[in-house]
Amino acid sequence: MRSETTLKNARIVLEDEIVTGSVMLRDGLIASIDTGNSAVGEDMEGDYLIPGLVELHTDHLESHYAPRPGVLWDCIAALQAHDAQVAGSGITTVFDCLRLGSDEDGGFKKGEMRVIADALETAATEDRLRASHLIHLRCEVSAGDVLEHFEDFREDPQVKLASLMDHAPGQRQFQTLEQYTLYYRKKRGLSDAEFERFVARRLEDSTRYSATHRKAIVEACTQRGIALASHDDATVDHVEESKDFGVRLAEFPTSIEAARASHQAGMSVLMGAPNVIRGKSHSGNISARALADERLLDVLSSDYVPFSLIHAPFVLADDEDGMTLPETIRLVSTAPARTVGLDDRGSIGTGLRADLVRVRRDRGVPVVRSVWREGRRVA
After folding, report:
1. pLDDT digits (tens, 9 = 90+) for 110-151
2. Which fold has domain 53-343?
3. Which of 372, 377, 340 shows the shortest CA–CA distance to 51?
4. Which of 51, 107, 148, 309 has its CB 3.0 to 4.6 Å from that of 102, i.e. a possible disulfide?
5. Domain 1-52+345-379 is classified in which CATH homologous superfamily?
6. pLDDT tens digits for 15-36?
7. pTM score > 0.90 for this model?
8. Phi first, then psi: what are they for 154, rounded to 5°?
9. 65: helix, coil or strand?
10. Which residues, including other chains, have CB under 8 Å from residue 318's CB and lie 6 or more apart?
11. 77 near 61, Cβ under 8 Å?
């Protein structure tokens, strides 16, 4: 039996313009887009109709799985809680980040991420989830056990993206020991002597493992067709290395030089939506708005606040000269989808997946009123 829905009287945000009209959904796809008034259909009351958001990098699932130190929540329950918040934020496709490799920041034991991945597959099979969930492996290449952890995912079809990370001091995100001290010493409450030993171990591990592990993971992902992301590239040399590895996504470059080089090399430059809203990075690196000013910002991710992904495009459209709402919405829909090869979604277009979000925004924080995934209302 055919399923058909018409959404009328909407301000439809297309890739390059906003039109007033209606969108017909049929059997999970967008069947037609018509301008003007439609006599039959669900009235959007002049609200925006935008593509379902595509989230490439969120650590948010971890906070549901491990809500307190020493507390691990039921995986299915954690997933459903995470999924409800994601879908309620207008995200219809989400890449859930799973950490591979134990470092001095803790991490998870071998097998724990595999348990979560199995729960994701079960939850999807049982139709428990509102959004489409895929896996983003965050590979800590300076960790001695990262390849052992990676083996748990070598053949998993849910994995569509892997990032190459090195969080040792002096590397990537933490270019100075001052930044590293602020983030780790205070966070972990270490004494001077304990912190010195901590830094020494991290530097030794990075020197010993990073280059070998980075290359091994790149080779495995290339063979599988898994998209690769760099993480916290800080220099042009970092970017050249990423380019040689076939990286498609430059996550959180820490300098304007690295962002510009990544953009010019054809990589999509990703920054955090919380960075946009706050006006600065939580770790003291370059602001997303500075990259937007230079038109070097290609993709936004919610990172640690799911709702920021729907909020940030409106902030940018308000505050950045020359940036229109269709342009800023592309940062959270079209661009991320195309970066990882999801060509069936990310825009409002005939024949694409009917992943849509109804948004009311007169001023201030937008309100997500309805969400459809493949033509089915999920929020």
Report:
1. 889 999 999 999 999 999 999 999 999 999 999 999 999 999
2. TIM Barrel (3.20.20)
3. 372
4. 107
5. Urease, subunit C, domain 1 (2.30.40.10)
6. 999 999 999 999 999 999 999 8
7. yes
8. -55, -35
9. helix
10. none
11. no
